[in-house]
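Continued from yesterday's entry.
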Amino acid sequence: RIKSSPGSYSNGYQILLTILETSIDLDADLIEGLAKRIAELNQQLILKKNRPDEEILIQLSLFQNETMSLRENIIDKQRLISSLMKSSIFPEEHKDVLRIMIRDISSILEHNKFAFERLEYLQDTFMGFVNIEQNRIIKIFTVATVAFMPPTLIASIYGMNFEFMPELAWKQGYLFAILLMFLSSIITLIYFKKKNWL
C-alpha cells in the first residue's frame, strides 16, 4: 500500500499507522482462515472420512499451536498500540486511529478465544470417540473370553484322564463333548444378546 502511493504519506507516523492497520487486517484474515479450517476438521471428525485418529490429533495440536502463536502476536501489537496511546510524543490527531485499532484487536482476540475454545471442544469430542472405540474393542474381547470359558471348562474336565469317566467308553462321547462345548458357547452368546451386551 505504501509503495503504490508513497505521496499519500506526509510523515512517519502515518506510515507506522498504515503498517499497523495492514498487520491487524492480516491477523483478522488469518483468524478467519483458521476458523474455516477448524470447521472443516469438525466435519471430518464427525464423518471420520477415513482419516486415522492419529492424523486428526496431530491436526488439532497444530491448530492449537497456530491459535496460540496468533494470540501472542496480536497481544504484542495491543501492547505496542497502548504504549503509543500513552506516549506524549505521538501526535494527538493520530490517536483516534489507534483507538479504532484497539477495538479491532479486541474483536480479533475474541475470535481467537472462540477458535481456541472450539479446538478444546473438538479435542474433548475426539477423546470421547476414542474412548467409545476402545470400550467397544474391550467389550468384544470380554465377550469372546467369557463365551469360550464354558467350552474350556468342559475340555478341562474331560482332559483330566480319570479312570472312571462314563463318557470315555461311550462311542459318541467325543461328538457329545464337541456339541456340548459348541452349545455352551452359543447359549452364552444368546444370553449376552438378550441382555443387549452385544
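--- second protein ---
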Amino acid sequence: MDFIVYSHRHGKNNLETDSQFTNTWLEIQQALSNITDEMILELHREKYIESNKSLSKAINQLIKEQLAAFRWSSESYIFKDNRYKNKAWRLDFAKDSISVEVAFNHSGTIAWNLMKPVIASELNHVEKAVQTKIGIIISATNELRDSGGFDSAIGTYEKYIEHLVPLNTQLTVPLVIVGLKRPETFYIETYKNSEGKTRGRIKYYDNAESLI
C-alpha cells in the first residue's frame, strides 16, 4: 500500500536518523509496502465481503501478518498490574521502543489512541510491562475512507493531524501519523442487501488493467 506520514515532535526525523529506531521503522514501511491490491482483494473476498462493507478487517489482518513476519509483538499490555490488562490499556504492536496503533475506529477514539503511546513512553507509578519511546498511528486517509467502504465517522489521517494541535501539551513524546492511501485498481461501492444491511461490492477503475 502507498502511504503518507506526518511527524509530531520530530518523530519522523528520529525514526530515520537514530540508529535505535531506523531498522524497526524500515520494517514498518516494508510491511505496509508489501500489501498489494491483490492481497487485499483476495482476503476481503475470502473472509469479509459477506459480513463487512469496508476493507478495514482485511487491511488490519494483513498488517498484523506482515508485522508478525518481522517478529513484532501484538496486543501488548502497557502495565503489569492485572487491573489494567484489558483492551483499553493494550498496544496493537510493539518492538524496540516503538509502539504502533492501527486505528480504523470511530473518530471519538482519536484522543485516546494518541495518548496510549504517550502512556507507554512516559514514566508511571503503575509498573510498566512495555516501555517505548516513539508512537506510530496507522490510519486511513480520507481517500481510503471514501473508496474503501469505511464508515464516514472513522478517525482518518487528516483528523488525527487536526487533533495534534489542541493536544500538543499532552502529547509529550515523538509521534508519527501514517495515512494509508486508497487501492489503485479498485474501490468499494456500498449498497443495502435484502436484509437492509449495508454491504460493499468491488468495483474496478477503468484503467485498472494498466495498473496491475
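The domain at 3-211 is CATH 3.40.91.20 (Restriction Endonuclease). Residues 56-69 form the longest helix (14 residues). Will compare against the first tomorrow.
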